[in-house]
Design a protein that fits this description.
alpha+beta, 5-stranded antiparallel β-sheet, 17% helix
Length: 728
């Protein structure tokens, strides 16, 4: 059913006039009392993805959004250009396993990256594994791979339709054939080989009723750790560890470099872990549960295994170090007072990653004001030996092994697609060599044409927030004029926003003569755990304030104007966008919210939502309920009663196999939003929901679907913003 709305469409191309929104049934009987507050959940029925009513609702929404986005000449031109821009050769860093170097390559428009190998870095690469051959539409993705110590086998995970679920297969690298066994019910798991190459540790979840293909909403609990013997069916796998009394605990496993320890880093949410381990006896068959020995028992810090020398284990941790440090914990004498600091905490820079190479060298990746710093330190003394020269940008990938003398890293920036560097300690000169340089295929695009600057603006509480801004250079003395501006944000879960390359960014810059802006909002990890804490739990409003202040800065400094400004974010960033259009609809010309967390009272009840309580708080607790209710997108929609309260043109995107953030969040939010604006004479901007099929949260998404989705987004931006210069 549809109903008329006063909403006008933004140009004359559309075939839909007047725009009609589906009428979502309101079930007034769903009422719950939370901590003394009565909450109606009239769209609860949209939480059932399998109901015919939900399917009909999705179909009706797509009948509105698809013609607007894809049924116009602009979409065709944008899609054609973006396809050309995307069509350039990409690589990741190689790493040697056994006698081969393995790396992934995409010729440009292949739906999935293809795995190649070569016997030396100068040898002709040969195709080893092509996921594109597994499905006609590219929706089966290689999401995990791990080689046995001798390089004889590759354990690999295949995911379908973007789901987090994957199945583990094992390939004999010499014959190119798979072993018979396939391991199922696997999610959020490593493939950790024992050093004898006879098998590996992995995690799976118990059987649950209904489908487990990514379209379900059931909570994932009671993960168990198993050992798989090569050549055996999954039902014979050995249960290694479980915690039935702690159903939310999950395992991250790694076999120590010496092969004598299984290290279990256990999490219960998206922050902090504890450390257990079990003794491994090389050569001894694994056929029973392990005795898990406790090293760290309190969930209060992060620990990441780096390497070990005998029982002396090296970890990257933020225990008593907001910016992280490297510590040595002797498993034979693990009391806290016996820990040794190897790399002290930097006073300002965040130790983002550590890799051991050449037996006794540590490659350290730091963030300095969100930009990469790369250096080599001694494992024994902690002394810095060399700092590599880097431009303003990011080291987005490092590959190294302790027992190899070489390592590889990939550098990227807003204007540099990627350069892969190779360094071998046999050279003894700390001068890396360029192994491969990735070049964009866009006529007329040169980095010199653009300017990248980093500014520090004030948020609402006067905190200085860094932001990267990219735009076309002006002539000397020429006054800055407002341009279309793409403002992207995330701000959560200790995740940092790096100055790295994005094809959509380049497309926006080139096609609309635009400005691209990336603020480093609180809640991220750019300045360590203090920065993260300043944007989580009861401080979450700081993230929204930071984002709104970024928009105000861009407008006040003549980079853009409200009618030229679009905001975008995904997942936690989708929550950010939705909360901001509720709080400050007057700031933005358009908004794109992708796979967002929109129902803050029930997010913890679906799939892995309970892990997010570390950032959002548990709504079952009064203090956190009262806090999330203040900004929950679903519960703060409003009916515009003035022009200032009009929502910007809004596009909400989700996918039917997203089992990270279930699509129910987006469906309920849009139902509430469209109902709120349906009869407001002040709401003239459209609100669209686009639901993609056979797609998930983002990982493993095929190139064809990425191009389709970005074409939708760019078309929406073009048709929603004041853009007077278009290069198509």
């Amino acid at each position: 059913m549809t109903a008329d709305t006063p909403t006008k469409l933004l140009d004359s191309e559309t075939k839909i006039s007047p725009l009609k929104y589906p009428v979502a049934r309101r079930d007034e009987s769903v009422v719950e009392t939370h901590h003394g507050v009565e909450i109606k959940d009239v769209y609860r029925w949209l939480e059932d993805p399998d109901s015919e009513e939900t399917k009909k609702y999705v179909e009706e929404q797509n009948k509105i959004s698809q013609p607007f986005l894809e049924g116009c000449d602009q979409w065709k031109k944008i899609n054609e250009k973006f396809t050309k821009v995307w069509n350039y050769e990409t690589y990741d860093c190689p790493l040697k396993h056994g006698k081969y170097y393995y790396f992934q390559r995409n010729t440009g428009l292949q739906n999935q990256h293809v795995l190649y190998r070569q016997e030396s870095l100068t040898a002709e690469p040969e195709l080893f594994f092509d996921p594109n051959a597994l499905s006609s539409d590219g929706t089966i993705a290689l999401v995990k791979k791990s080689f046995s110590e001798d390089g004889r086998y590759m354990g690999y995970g295949l995911s379908a339709n973007g789901s987090d679920w994957f199945k583990i297969h094992i390939r004999d690298v010499e014959t190119g054939k798979d072993l018979e066994e396939v391991l199922e019910k696997v999610k959020f798991s490593e493939i950790s080989w024992t050093k004898d190459s006879k098998g590996f540790f992995y995690c799976s979840f118990p059987h649950q009723e209904g489908v487990t293909d990514g379209s379900e909403t059931q909570s994932n609990e009671n993960q168990k750790l198993y050992y798989h013997h090569l050549g055996q069916p999954q039902e014979k796998d050995v249960l290694i560890a479980e915690f039935p009394e702690e159903p939310t605990w999950q395992f991250q496993t790694v076999v120590s470099d010496c092969g004598k320890y299984l290290i279990m880093l256990i999490t219960k949410d998206c922050r902090d872990n504890i450390v257990y381990y079990a003794d491994l006896e090389p050569g001894k068959e694994i056929n029973t549960k392990f005795e898990a020995k406790k090293i760290v028992e309190k969930f209060e810090s992060d620990y990441e295994y780096i390497t070990n020398i005998g029982s002396k284990m090296y970890f990257r941790t933020n225990k008593d170090a907001s910016n992280y440090r490297v510590v040595m914990i002797d498993f034979e004498n693990p009391a806290l007072e016996n820990w040794q600091t190897i790399i002290v905490e930097h006073p300002t820079d965040v130790l983002d990653a550590v890799h051991c190479v050449n037996e006794n060298m540590l490659v350290l990746h730091y963030l300095h004001d969100a930009k990469s710093v790369l250096q080599v330190n001694s494992l024994e003394s902690g002394e810095m030996l060399h700092k590599f020269d880097l431009e303003m940008g990011s080291v987005v990938e490092i590959k190294a092994k302790k027992h190899q003398t070489e390592f590889f890293y990939r550098f990227s920036s807003f204007l540099t697609p990627g350069i892969i560097y190779h360094y071998d300690f046999k050279w003894d000169n700390f001068t890396p060599k360029v192994l491969r340089e990735i070049k964009l295929n866009l006529e007329g695009f040169t980095p010199a044409k653009y300017k990248v600057e980093q500014v520090f603006y004030e948020s609402k509480d006067k905190t200085k927030i860094p932001m990267f801004i990219v735009y076309q250079n002006t002539q000397a003395g020429e006054k800055r004029t407002p341009r279309p501006c793409f403002l992207y944000g995330y701000g959560g879960f200790n995740c940092s926003m790096y100055p790295s390359f994005g094809v959509m960014d380049v497309m926006f810059l080139d096609t609309f003569d635009g400005v691209v802006a990336y603020p480093n909002l609180r809640g991220g990890g750019e300045y360590g755990e203090k920065w993260h804490n300043a944007g989580r739990l009861l401080n979450k409003q700081n993230v929204f304030d930071d984002f709104q202040a970024a928009a105000e800065y861009l407008i006040a400094n003549n980079y853009t104007t409200k009618d030229r400004l679009v905001i975008q974010g995904g997942s936690n960033g989708g929550l950010l966008v939705a909360a901001c259009i509720n709080q400050r609809p007057d700031l933005f010309g358009a908004a794109v919210a992708e796979v967002g967390v929109m129902d803050m009272l029930r997010f913890h009840k679906f799939t892995i939502g309970h892990y997010w309580c570390s950032d959002y708080g548990n709504p079952d607790e009064k203090e956190h309920f009262e806090n999330v209710l203040k900004y929950s997108p679903l519960h703060n929609v409003h009916t515009p009663t003035t022009e200032k309260e009009e929502y910007p043109a809004t596009l909400v995107l989700t996918a039917d196999h997203d089992d990270r953030v279930s699509p129910l969040h987006s469906l309920k939010f849009v139902a509430a939003l469209q109902e709120a604006v349906r009869h407001s004479k002040y709401q003239k901007n459209p609100i669209f929901l686009r639901v993609y099929s056979n797609a998930g949260h983002g990982a493993g998404k095929p190139t064809s679907k990425i191009i389709e989705e970005v074409s939708d987004i760019l078309t929406f931006m073009l048709r929603s913003l004041n853009i007077d210069k278009v290069n198509l």
